[in-house]
Amino acid sequence: MRQRLADETGRIDKVAPNTVALAYPSPYAAGMSSLGFQRIYRSIQELDGFAAHRAFLADRGDLPGANVPGVLTYEALRPISSYRVIAVSVAYELELAGLIRMLDAAGIPVNRRDRGPEHPFLLMGGPLTFSNPSPLLGYADAVIMGEAEELIGPAIEILYSAQTRMSQLEGLAKLPSITVPALHGSQLASIASIDNDLLPAWGPIRTPHAEFSNMFLIEAERGCSRGCSYCVMRRSTNGGMRIVSKEKILSLIPADAPKVGLVGAAVSDHPKIVEIVNELADLGKKVSLSSLRPDRLNDAFVAALARGGYRTLTTAMDGTSQNVRLRLERKAKETHIEKCAMLARKHGMDRLKLYLMVGTPGEGPEDLDECIRFTTELSKIIPLSLGIAPFVSKRNTPLDGLPFAGIDVVQDRLAQLRSGVKGRVDIRSTSAKWAWVEWVLAQGGEAEGLAVVDAVRAGGTFADYKRAFGTLETSGARTPVVRKLPMIAA
Question: Does residue 148 share a domain with residue 226?
Fold first, then answer.
């Protein structure tokens, strides 16, 4: 921990009468690569009378060198159990396991109903709230829904000024876009949207120990103007795409930052993105974009990316065939992707990497055959990698409620792809079994969330999750999603 602190650049050191434990339920490398986590850190540090002390799911680098029990904050080497408030950012469903491990290690009851006034107040939020935060409701005393920049300050002030746990809950319940399970039950508050003048988010801390090593993270835009039917951030969420001006982006980037990460759901749709990348390259900075759409990549754009240090061009193929992409409301066509391959080769890149899903609605073996044919042809242009994830339906999307394709089905399709492109295309895929676990939580509620406790404490294997979710079905506590359990088939 001390070495990681010593290697950080841009940390906001602050002494304040009130301190908040800001926790991330994944290791330090992931947490410090989260722009949202860093943005809330900055919000608390800018709040009069308050300071944020960071904590992460333990890994080897979190050992402080002192015999201090529990989960410790970086800034104070202090157990998170000793803080009045723990603010937790959760990015996706499977991070619930990390949350449980953190709370167990800290000696804090994981179920909110088991905590008393002597325990910290758990205030939760993060990207998961845009989709389905219901699995959090058994753990969180309160959940900030959506964009939290304008709510985190008032929420913390209430938590530190209120004299009792009930007055804390009642005070938070009066704020917009905060769900208080003890008072609201399973009813979720609306998703918050901040004033555009507060954009962009940017991360003050750079560190070589983050997944994005020594990279300054900043939003180029927020939201998306597109209507992809599977995506939580489609244009209907919080007013669609909100652009940050080129001038504002460039003005906020530190002169000594060697690498810049431009973040957003649709960064390549920024009207001046090529100018931004070129101007950063002129300053000698390496540039990374969080999203590249194949229909936006032209010669000037790929040339700018090459100047910014790109050696692998990464974009989204999304579906296994053109018919699948049409059903998903994706604009990418084979001609766009083929052009990307040609441009990557032209500008001296080593590889093209494509992301896509399998197990999407209506997909059949013939769609996999089309994918094999097309990617084989692409591999003749430039070395090709496929990053594959099983389709998981999410709340707040047009495909909400659709069943998981089935573990056996997904595994068969992955096998079909691997066999069809063997020796020509490199394939990396996420687990079909863990995608099913993600789907149960993405479509589930508080009962599914709390079932993760049993799974984690039993060892955290897939069999443990399958058993924990199955127990809900026999106890009668299961929400409607559980009736789809036979789809797992393995």
Answer: no
Residue 484 confidence (pLDDT) above 50 = no
Co-location of 13 and 91 in the same domain: yes
Determine, yes or no, domain membership for 351.
no
Once rounded to an integer, what is the mean pLDDT over residues 310-334? 92
Residues 425, 445: contact at Cβ < 8 Å?
no
448 alpha carbon, distance to own chain's centre:
20
Q: Which amino acid is at 11?
A: R
Report how far residue 428's alpha carbon sits from residue 286's, in angstroms, rounded to the nearest whole number.
Answer: 26
Count CB-CB contacts under 10 A for residue 427: 16
Claim to verify: residue 225 and residue 169 sit in the same structural domain: no
Indicate if 164 and 220 belong to the same structural domain. Answer: no
Question: What domain count does the chain have?
Answer: 2
For residues 170 and 31, membership in a common domain is answered with yes
CB count within 10 Å of CB 113 equals 9
pLDDT, averaged across the chain: 92
User: pLDDT (tens digit, 9 = 90+) per residue, 100-123?
Assistant: 999 999 999 999 999 999 999 999
Q: What pTM was estimated for this model as a whole?
A: 0.92
pLDDT at 486 over 80: no
Residue entry with tokens 């929420």: 155
Q: The tokens of 352 are what?
A: 């093209």
Respond yes or no on whether the N-terminal peptide bond of residue 254 is cis (omega within 30° of 0): no
Q: Are 388 and 358 in contact (CB under 8 A)?
A: yes
- DSSP letters along 293-325, please? -GGG--HHHHHHHHHTT-SEEEEEEESSSHHHH
* Residue 178 domain boundaries: 2-184
CB contact at 8 A, 254 and 10: yes
In terms of Cα–Cα distance, which of 13, 34, 31 is closest to 290? 34
Residue matched to tokens 């841009």:
10
- The answer to whether the CB of 410 falls within 8 A of the CB of 379 is no
pLDDT interval class at 232 (50, 70, 90): confident
DSSP code, position 191: P
Pick from 262, 291, 320: which residue ends a domain? 291
Model pLDDT for residues 254-275, shown as the tens digit of each residue = 999 999 999 999 999 999 999 9
Cβ atoms of residues 456 and 97 within 8 Å: yes
Summarised one tens digit per residue, pLDDT across range 61-108 is 666 544 555 799 999 999 999 999 999 999 999 999 999 999 999 999
3-class secondary structure, 343: helix
Decide which of 233, 259, 291 is a domain's last residue. 291
Residues 138 and 250 grouped into a single domain: no
Task: Provide the pLDDT for residue 227.
Answer: 84
pLDDT at 212: 93
Q: Judging by DSSP bridges, how do beta strands 178-179 and 142-144 pair with one another? A: antiparallel
CATH code (residue 174): 3.40.50
